[in-house]
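Input record, target 12 of the design panel.
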Protein backbone atom coordinates (compact mmCIF):
# COMPACT_ATOMS: atom_id res chain seq x y z
CA UNK A 1 0.00 0.00 0.00
CA UNK A 2 1.28 3.45 -0.85
CA UNK A 3 2.34 5.79 1.92
CA UNK A 4 1.82 9.57 1.87
CA UNK A 5 5.51 10.05 1.00
CA UNK A 6 5.01 7.93 -2.11
CA UNK A 7 1.99 9.93 -3.22
CA UNK A 8 2.20 12.95 -5.55
CA UNK A 9 1.93 16.54 -4.29
CA UNK A 10 -1.54 17.98 -3.76
CA UNK A 11 -1.73 19.33 -7.32
CA UNK A 12 -0.89 15.95 -8.83
CA UNK A 13 -3.19 14.31 -6.28
CA UNK A 14 -6.12 16.46 -7.43
CA UNK A 15 -5.26 15.88 -11.10
CA UNK A 16 -5.16 12.09 -10.59
CA UNK A 17 -8.49 12.13 -8.77
CA UNK A 18 -10.05 14.25 -11.52
CA UNK A 19 -8.79 11.93 -14.26
CA UNK A 20 -9.94 8.83 -12.36
CA UNK A 21 -13.38 10.42 -12.05
CA UNK A 22 -13.25 11.16 -15.80
CA UNK A 23 -14.23 14.81 -15.46
CA UNK A 24 -12.63 17.78 -17.20
CA UNK A 25 -10.71 20.58 -15.57
CA UNK A 26 -13.55 22.98 -16.39
CA UNK A 27 -16.19 20.68 -14.84
CA UNK A 28 -14.22 20.28 -11.61
CA UNK A 29 -13.62 24.04 -11.42
CA UNK A 30 -17.36 24.68 -11.74
CA UNK A 31 -18.28 22.03 -9.14
CA UNK A 32 -15.67 23.31 -6.67
CA UNK A 33 -16.58 26.96 -7.23
CA UNK A 34 -13.14 28.07 -8.42
CA UNK A 35 -11.90 29.50 -11.68
CA UNK A 36 -10.55 27.29 -14.43
CA UNK A 37 -7.10 28.99 -14.58
CA UNK A 38 -6.77 28.86 -10.78
CA UNK A 39 -7.48 25.11 -10.71
CA UNK A 40 -5.03 24.57 -13.57
CA UNK A 41 -2.31 26.37 -11.59
CA UNK A 42 -3.09 24.20 -8.52
CA UNK A 43 -2.75 21.00 -10.53
CA UNK A 44 0.58 22.15 -11.98
CA UNK A 45 1.89 23.04 -8.51
CA UNK A 46 2.06 26.78 -9.23
CA UNK A 47 -0.53 27.74 -6.60
CA UNK A 48 -1.14 26.44 -3.11
CA UNK A 49 -4.86 26.09 -2.40
CA UNK A 50 -6.42 27.24 0.87
CA UNK A 51 -8.11 24.84 3.28
CA UNK A 52 -11.51 26.07 2.08
CA UNK A 53 -10.67 25.40 -1.58
CA UNK A 54 -9.31 21.97 -0.67
CA UNK A 55 -12.56 21.16 1.12
CA UNK A 56 -14.57 22.25 -1.93
CA UNK A 57 -12.38 20.16 -4.23
CA UNK A 58 -12.69 17.13 -1.92
CA UNK A 59 -16.47 17.48 -1.93
CA UNK A 60 -16.54 17.81 -5.74
CA UNK A 61 -14.25 14.78 -6.14
CA UNK A 62 -16.16 12.81 -3.46
CA UNK A 63 -13.11 12.03 -1.35
CA UNK A 64 -12.36 12.49 2.32
CA UNK A 65 -11.44 16.04 3.31
CA UNK A 66 -8.74 14.77 5.73
CA UNK A 67 -7.13 12.91 2.81
CA UNK A 68 -7.02 16.15 0.83
CA UNK A 69 -5.62 18.08 3.81
CA UNK A 70 -2.99 15.39 4.32
CA UNK A 71 -1.73 15.69 0.76
CA UNK A 72 -1.58 19.49 1.12
CA UNK A 73 0.50 19.18 4.29
CA UNK A 74 -2.23 20.55 6.55
CA UNK A 75 -2.36 17.30 8.53
CA UNK A 76 0.38 14.98 9.71
CA UNK A 77 0.16 11.27 8.99
CA UNK A 78 -1.72 10.33 12.15
CA UNK A 79 -5.08 8.84 13.03
CA UNK A 80 -5.31 6.89 9.79
CA UNK A 81 -5.27 9.81 7.35
CA UNK A 82 -2.55 8.05 5.34
CA UNK A 83 -4.95 5.18 4.72
CA UNK A 84 -7.59 7.59 3.45
CA UNK A 85 -5.10 9.21 1.12
CA UNK A 86 -3.98 5.84 -0.23
CA UNK A 87 -7.59 4.85 -0.90
CA UNK A 88 -8.19 8.14 -2.69
CA UNK A 89 -5.35 7.63 -5.22
CA UNK A 90 -5.80 3.93 -5.84
CA UNK A 91 -6.28 3.69 -9.61
CA UNK A 92 -7.90 0.25 -9.34
CA UNK A 93 -10.90 1.59 -7.41
CA UNK A 94 -13.88 3.48 -8.74
CA UNK A 95 -14.95 6.74 -7.13
CA UNK A 96 -17.93 4.98 -5.52
CA UNK A 97 -15.64 2.29 -4.11
CA UNK A 98 -13.21 4.89 -2.76
CA UNK A 99 -16.02 6.77 -1.07
CA UNK A 100 -17.45 3.58 0.42
CA UNK A 101 -14.07 2.39 1.69
CA UNK A 102 -13.31 5.77 3.25
CA UNK A 103 -16.68 5.85 5.01
CA UNK A 104 -16.28 2.28 6.29
CA UNK A 105 -12.76 2.97 7.51
CA UNK A 106 -13.78 6.12 9.36
CA UNK A 107 -16.82 4.32 10.85
CA UNK A 108 -14.59 1.53 12.18
CA UNK A 109 -12.21 4.07 13.71
CA UNK A 110 -15.05 5.93 15.44
CA UNK A 111 -16.48 2.65 16.76
CA UNK A 112 -13.08 1.53 18.07
CA UNK A 113 -12.62 4.88 19.80
CA UNK A 114 -16.05 4.57 21.40
CA UNK A 115 -15.31 1.02 22.59
CA UNK A 116 -11.94 2.07 23.99
CA UNK A 117 -13.59 4.88 25.97
CA UNK A 118 -16.28 2.51 27.29
CA UNK A 119 -13.61 -0.02 28.31
CA UNK A 120 -11.64 2.69 30.11
CA UNK A 121 -14.76 3.72 32.04
CA UNK A 122 -15.47 0.07 32.96
CA UNK A 123 -11.89 -0.42 34.16
CA UNK A 124 -12.11 2.71 36.29
CA UNK A 125 -15.39 1.54 37.84
CA UNK A 126 -13.94 -1.91 38.54
CA UNK A 127 -10.87 -0.36 40.16
CA UNK A 128 -13.15 1.71 42.41
CA UNK A 129 -15.15 -1.37 43.41
CA UNK A 130 -11.93 -3.28 44.18
CA UNK A 131 -10.74 -0.46 46.44
CA UNK A 132 -14.06 -0.52 48.32
CA UNK A 133 -13.81 -4.30 48.84
CA UNK A 134 -10.25 -3.90 50.11
CA UNK A 135 -11.42 -1.31 52.63
CA UNK A 136 -14.23 -3.61 53.78
CA UNK A 137 -11.82 -6.54 54.16
CA UNK A 138 -9.48 -4.34 56.19
CA UNK A 139 -12.35 -3.48 58.55
CA UNK A 140 -13.33 -7.13 59.15
CA UNK A 141 -10.24 -8.22 61.16
CA UNK A 142 -10.78 -5.34 63.57
CA UNK A 143 -14.40 -6.36 64.24
CA UNK A 144 -13.40 -10.01 64.63
CA UNK A 145 -10.72 -9.05 67.16
CA UNK A 146 -13.33 -7.10 69.13
CA UNK A 147 -15.63 -10.16 69.17
CA UNK A 148 -12.83 -12.36 70.50
CA UNK A 149 -12.06 -9.84 73.23
CA UNK A 150 -15.72 -9.89 74.32
CA UNK A 151 -15.74 -13.71 74.47
CA UNK A 152 -12.58 -13.72 76.57
CA UNK A 153 -14.09 -11.23 79.02
CA UNK A 154 -17.63 -12.59 79.39
CA UNK A 155 -17.35 -16.15 78.12
CA UNK A 156 -19.28 -17.60 75.23
CA UNK A 157 -22.76 -16.27 74.61
CA UNK A 158 -25.90 -17.43 72.80
CA UNK A 159 -27.33 -15.80 69.68
CA UNK A 160 -29.38 -13.54 71.97
CA UNK A 161 -26.27 -12.41 73.80
CA UNK A 162 -26.96 -14.32 77.04
CA UNK A 163 -23.83 -15.87 78.61
CA UNK A 164 -23.71 -19.62 77.93
CA UNK A 165 -22.86 -20.48 81.54
CA UNK A 166 -26.05 -18.83 82.79
CA UNK A 167 -28.11 -20.85 80.30
CA UNK A 168 -26.48 -24.13 81.37
CA UNK A 169 -27.12 -23.40 85.06
CA UNK A 170 -30.78 -22.67 84.33
CA UNK A 171 -31.17 -25.98 82.46
CA UNK A 172 -29.52 -27.94 85.28
CA UNK A 173 -31.81 -26.41 87.90
CA UNK A 174 -34.89 -27.13 85.81
CA UNK A 175 -33.97 -30.81 85.35
CA UNK A 176 -32.97 -31.47 89.02
CA UNK A 177 -35.75 -29.51 90.60
CA UNK A 178 -35.43 -26.68 93.05
CA UNK A 179 -33.07 -27.50 95.92
CA UNK A 180 -34.63 -27.17 99.42
CA UNK A 181 -33.64 -24.21 101.47
CA UNK A 182 -31.06 -24.96 104.16
CA UNK A 183 -32.63 -26.06 107.48
CA UNK A 184 -36.07 -26.60 105.99
CA UNK A 185 -37.83 -29.98 106.04
CA UNK A 186 -40.27 -31.17 103.46
CA UNK A 187 -43.90 -32.20 104.39
CA UNK A 188 -43.40 -35.95 103.70
CA UNK A 189 -40.44 -36.01 106.06
CA UNK A 190 -42.53 -34.37 108.82
CA UNK A 191 -45.32 -36.92 108.32
CA UNK A 192 -42.90 -39.83 108.57
CA UNK A 193 -41.45 -38.40 111.74
CA UNK A 194 -44.92 -38.08 113.29
CA UNK A 195 -45.84 -41.68 112.44
CA UNK A 196 -42.59 -42.94 113.93
CA UNK A 197 -43.31 -41.03 117.13
CA UNK A 198 -46.81 -42.55 117.42
CA UNK A 199 -45.40 -46.06 116.99
CA UNK A 200 -42.93 -45.50 119.80
CA UNK A 201 -45.61 -44.34 122.19
CA UNK A 202 -48.03 -47.14 121.40
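The sequence produced for target 12 reads:
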Amino acid sequence: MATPKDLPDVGGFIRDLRRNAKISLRQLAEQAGVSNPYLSQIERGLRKPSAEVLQQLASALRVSTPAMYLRAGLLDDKEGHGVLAAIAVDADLTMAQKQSLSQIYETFRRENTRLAEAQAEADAAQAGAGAAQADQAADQPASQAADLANVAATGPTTMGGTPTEAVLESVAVTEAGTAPAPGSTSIPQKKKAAEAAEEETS
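Residues 27 and 36 are 9 Å apart (CA to CA).
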